[in-house]
Amino acid sequence: MPRPRSPRYLLPAAALAVACMGLPAQADQALAAASNCMGCHRIDKRLVGPPFKDIAARYRGDQTAVDRLAAKIRQGGTGVWGVQHMPANPQVSEADARKLAAWVLSL
Questions:
Q1: pTM of the model
Q2: What is the DSSP string of 8-47?
Q3: What are phi and psi of 28, to 5 degrees?
Q4: CA–CA gap between residue 78 and residue 25 (Å, rounded)
Q5: What is the C-alpha end-to-end distance of the chain, expressed in Å?
Q6: In CATH, what class is 25-106?
Q7: Which one of 50, 66, 68, 92 has the lowest number of neighbouring Cβ atoms within 10 Å?
Q8: What are phi and psi of 92, to 5 degrees?
Q9: Per-residue pLDDT tens digits for 27-52
Q10: CA 106 – CA 24 distance, rounded (Å)
């Protein structure tokens, strides 16, 4: 009869799982570049639109931020960061818009 596995393997596995929870979303700067985001935004400096880090700071703690930003990515908008209009990006899928929003918020 096989011997049951020792629970000593559970603690390292649980620690690894908890550590991975803090990693940024799978979306990254490459997805942002492929989606045309980098044409107007940079991570830490203003170009046409606000820096991604400023966006993350503004929405920190907002539980609806991923949904709101994903909608803004796809539909565009104006007035949130001044008079500059953000064009709609309907070519970005809803799933990718959510990944991008989560990535921006992780910065």
A1: 0.74
A2: GGHHHHHHHHHHHHTSPPS--HHHHHHTTGGGTB-SSSBS
A3: -150, -170
A4: 26
A5: 51
A6: mainly alpha
A7: 68
A8: -85, 125
A9: 589 999 999 999 999 999 999 999 99
A10: 6
